[in-house]
Design brief:
Structural class: mainly alpha
Largest sheet: none
Shape: elongated
Radius of gyration: 20 Å
CATH topology: Tetracycline Repressor, domain 2
Distance between the termini: 59 Å
Number of domains: 1
CATH architecture: Orthogonal Bundle
CATH superfamily: Tetracycline Repressor, domain 2
CATH class: Mainly Alpha
Helix content: 55-70%
Number of strands: 0
Strand content: under 5%
């Protein structure tokens, strides 16, 4: 731990911010707004004062955690790595698994904050903290009509997604709080969904000549189904598995 504490001051503001948020996320998912900066400091192996060089207060740290939880960049990187020589249904199933894992992480963080009294506080970027997952599905339906990112390629979607997380930290001006004066690096729910649609649309490209609809439209429809309730009908019904969803989407209901 001592060695880590010595290395931390040599980090760039962006690296230090990312390291703190990464350490804080599982604690926020567990404790919600009741997490303390002392707990985060211990998890990050840094002094508690270092947190306040990067974030104005605990609320600013929690805001950064919400942004990170909402950011689909990690899922988009996984989708970009799906081999295109697999059958289409297998590709779509892998994408579904990556996106559901992202939604689960997002739900754990936002749900814990909601349960510990942070309900109603707007998330950075303008979305209510409790509406992230539901809003994602609503935005998918709207984005399916097309948008500025609809035709972007696999690599471009991945690169764009990586830049829309918790936001870059600010400079090292004497006396300044790192990142306090710089706006959060998020382009909003619609742009996030557009990048996700573009990434999934790439999975349809090998079959483009035989597709019933354009890849972007098929991606939007597939995501709309994926973002619906996992256990159709509610209750104790068995959740729809990613492979089932992909197989029925690609091949239809008839054997």
């Amino acid at each position: 731990m001592t060695e880590t504490r010595r290395r931390a001051p040599g980090m760039t503001p962006e690296q230090r911010r990312d390291m703190i948020v990464k350490a804080a996320l599982p604690l926020v998912a567990e404790h919600g707004a009741a997490v303390t900066t002392a707990q985060v400091a211990r998890a990050a192996a840094i002094g508690e004062a270092t947190i306040f060089r990067v974030f104005a207060d605990k609320d600013a740290l929690l805001d950064a955690c919400v942004l990170q939880a909402l950011d689909p960049a990690h899922a988009l990187r996984e989708i970009a790595e799906v081999p295109l020589d697999q059958p289409l249904a297998a590709r779509l199933a892998e994408a579904a698994e990556a996106l559901r894992a992202h939604l689960d992480r997002m739900g754990a963080v936002i749900g814990a904050l909601h349960a510990t009294g942070r309900a109603g506080r707007p998330a950075p970027g303008g979305d209510a903290a409790g509406d992230g997952r539901r809003g994602e599905g609503e935005a998918v339906a709207a984005a399916g009509r097309g948008g500025p990112d609809a035709g972007r390629g696999r690599g471009e979607a991945d690169a764009a997604g990586a830049g829309d997380g918790a936001g870059a930290a600010g400079g090292d001006e004497p006396g300044a709080v790192e990142g306090r004066d710089r706006p959060a690096g998020t382009s909003g729910r619609e742009a996030s969904v557009a990048r996700t649609i573009a990434a999934v649309a790439e999975l349809f490209e090998p079959e483009r000549a035989s597709l019933r609809l354009p890849p972007e439209r098929l991606a939007a429809i597939y995501l709309s189904m994926l973002y619906a309730r996992p256990g159709l009908g509610g209750g104790d019904r068995e959740p729809v598995r990613a492979q089932e969803l992909a197989e029925v989407f690609v091949h239809g209901a008839l054997a």
